[in-house]
Write a structure and sequence with these properties.
The structure holds two protein chains of two kinds.
Chain A: H1 2-6, H2 10-39, H3 57-63, H4 66-97, H5 102-113, H6 120-131, H7 137-144, H8 160-185, H9 189-197, H10 202-213, H11 215-230, H12 234-239, H13 252-261, H14 270-294
Helix pairs in contact in A: 2-14, 4-8, 4-11, 5-8, 6-8, 11-14, 13-14
Chain B: H1 2-36, H2 41-46, H3 58-66, H4 69-100, H5 104-116, H6 122-134, H7 141-164, H8 170-177, H9 182-193, H10 195-211, H11 214-219, H12 228-242, H13 245-280
């Protein structure tokens, strides 16, 4: 084996080590991106070989497409309403967890992040159970305390997007808590010791030392959350017990799926679905660029 | 002194209370789901708070045998294990080249993988389905494995390369002086030393593939090739006709328990993988 390997020079060895990855990545990841871009200029249904290039027609249709804009609005609700609670709770948990001893900290952390590790289908069923009007957790609890008048159809068209957002907060918050907690654990302990000597309390140390020193990780988290919100699919799709989820819960990703593979709406429009997918990539780039621009800093804290 | 420590005891109490409240909610939900999966539908409707009268495992037998979740379970096991194995075998030599070689082309490749981290999946689904239909790999577990390998490559390389960077270069240089080839020094020196990083990437990828739902929904049509997430999802559809809530919750437990066990046993490694990726970025 050793002798055989010695026959290759350095460049050949590099080639051998990396070629399987490069082949798979180019064929099954990069090529499809450009192929989608190509389809987005066609009227292809997805079946047969009848493909006509129709220029920018799909993009013109997209700009006037009410369902597309509705899915953008929904994505924004998930991103901002859900995001607000995700980051509020993450900071709260980082503060709380950094004030408990190592063993309970690890146990709490594991439980907080556990929902993030579950299949979206399992999560959707868990929240379907919580919101079930007849025997769900919330309404049963309200009835138990004789608060029947507060019991609602939590999944009615008016409430469903807010209900879904709360479910999303529950299973996403652990991921950001874990990352921000790890970032805060990297801060040298001397900083806190000096603050102790100055008589700073827990809150003061958290706001004046911890938060400023984890801003670069916070930026990564915000970008990651924005990307997650834009491509959110499984939880929303599986939350509809059967058939298609209601339009007022769709994200861009769900709309794209419906156009190409949906059971009832706008089936078999691979060309137009590709246009929506391209719009999804563009909005990802714009949102990530915006976050980077808004959080650009002149000074970086080094330690 | 005593006033200060009393105050600190009080704030400690509130801190623990807040954490117990949130974690308690999560644990309660899991236990409630588990409890309901042992009930009968009549018991569920009659009293949602009551414990099941007998430990009724009928729901599990029904889900496992009659609704054939056993095949879905097996399919998920095959797809997750195979995609993880292939991913680690191809991503670790690639990561090694990407961090050590100073060629222009490898730097370009590195950038392409970083971009891949942010590409949303919907953009690759349609062309992949078209390609796989042509190759007779659509509605096929091998096809699904290949897609999982491709979409997980950027993150796996990110994790593994991040770990390999911490291995000192002197070790390989010494081995090459001793007459070891480039590939040999990867295989004999770096691969074994990177094992902790590889295990993290493998566990992380296994859980991601096990839970994956979007791609499977697009690629798999036949009932016999469904993964577990798809199987439980199709359970929901049959719910429309027979309202078998407790049966469905048994399916959800079957779907969730393997990842819960894996996560509780290996949470240190998995969390290290999650944070390792973000903290270096």
């Amino acid at each position: 084996m050793g002798k055989f390997l010695n026959k290759f020079n350095r460049k050949e060895s590099i080639f051998i080590l990396i070629i399987p990855t490069v082949l798979i990545y180019f064929a099954l990841f990069l090529y499809p991106i450009f192929s989608s871009l190509n389809y987005s200029f066609t009227d292809w249904s997805g079946f047969g070989s009848n493909i006509n290039y129709i220029g920018l027609n799909n993009y013109k249709e997209l700009l006037g497409d009410k369902t597309f804009w509705l899915s953008c609005k929904n994505t924004f609700i998930y991103m901002f309403f859900g995001g607000f609670f995700i980051f509020f709770l993450s900071f709260l948990f980082v503060f709380l967890l950094s004030n408990v001893r190592t063993l309970p900290r690890k146990i709490f952390r594991t439980i907080i992040v556990l929902p993030y590790m579950l299949s979206p289908v399992a999560l959707a069923n868990i929240w379907g159970y919580i919101y079930n009007p007849r025997f769900g957790l919330i309404n049963s609890m309200l009835r138990l305390f004789r608060l029947d008048f507060l019991a609602q159809a939590w999944t009615s068209p008016k409430l469903i997007i807010w209900s879904l957002s709360i479910g999303i907060v529950w299973f996403q918050v652990g991921f950001y808590t874990v990352i921000l907690l790890a970032a805060s654990e990297k801060i040298p302990i001397d900083y806190y010791e000096v603050a102790d000597l100055d008589g700073a309390g827990k809150f003061r140390k958290f706001f004046n030392i911890t938060i400023p020193l984890i801003t670069s990780e916070l930026e990564v988290c915000l970008i990651f959350w924005a990307i997650t919100a834009i491509r959110m699919f499984g939880f929303i799709f599986a939350f509809a017990i059967a058939g298609d989820p209601p339009t007022n819960t769709w994200t861009n990703a769900v709309y794209m799926y419906m156009l190409a593979f949906g059971k009832t709406t706008g089936i078999d429009r691979f060309g137009y679905a590709s246009t929506v997918a391209v719009a999804l990539v563009i909005s990802t780039i714009v949102v990530v660029g915006l976050i980077r621009f808004l959080l650009r800093r002149k000074e970086r804290y080094e330690y | 002194m005593s006033i200060k420590s009393q105050k600190s005891d009080k704030s400690k109490f509130f801190i623990y209370m807040a954490l117990v409240l949130f974690c308690g909610f999560s644990v309660f939900i899991f236990l409630w789901m588990l409890m309901t999966s042992f009930k009968t539908n009549q018991e569920l409707y009659a009293n949602v708070w009551g414990l099941p009268k007998a430990l009724n495992i009928g729901n599990y037998i029904n889900a496992w045998d009659v609704l054939n979740l056993k095949y879905c379970f097996l399919n998920s096991l095959i797809v997750s294990s195979a995609s993880t194995l292939i991913l680690i075998l191809i991503a670790s030599p690639a990561s090694y080249v990407l961090i050590r070689s100073k060629l222009k082309i490898t730097k370009l490749l590195n950038n392409l993988f970083v971009i891949g981290l942010g590409i949303p999946l919907p953009i690759i689904l349609i062309p992949l389905l078209v390609l796989f239909a042509r190759l007779k790999l659509a509605d096929n577990l091998i096809g699904l494995i290949l897609v999982y390998v491709a979409v997980e490559l950027p993150f796996a390389i990110f994790l593994i390369a991040g770990f390999m960077r911490s291995i000192p270069q002197e070790l390989e240089q010494a081995s090459i002086i001793d007459g070891c080839s480039y590939i040999g020094s990867f295989w004999k020196i770096i691969f074994p030393l990177a094992t902790p990083g590889l295990v993290t990437a493998a566990v992380f990828n296994f859980i991601t593939s096990w839970n994956e739902y979007y791609i499977a929904l697009v690629f798999i049509n036949s009932e016999s090739k469904r993964t577990l997430s798809l199987g439980v999802y199709s359970f929901q559809t049959s719910m429309l006709y027979n309202a078998d809530w407790v049966g469905m919750y048994a399916g959800v437990v079957i779907l969730a328990v393997p990842t819960i066990i894996l996560f509780v046993l290996l949470s240190e490694k998995i969390i290290a993988g999650m944070t390792g990726g973000a903290l270096k970025g």
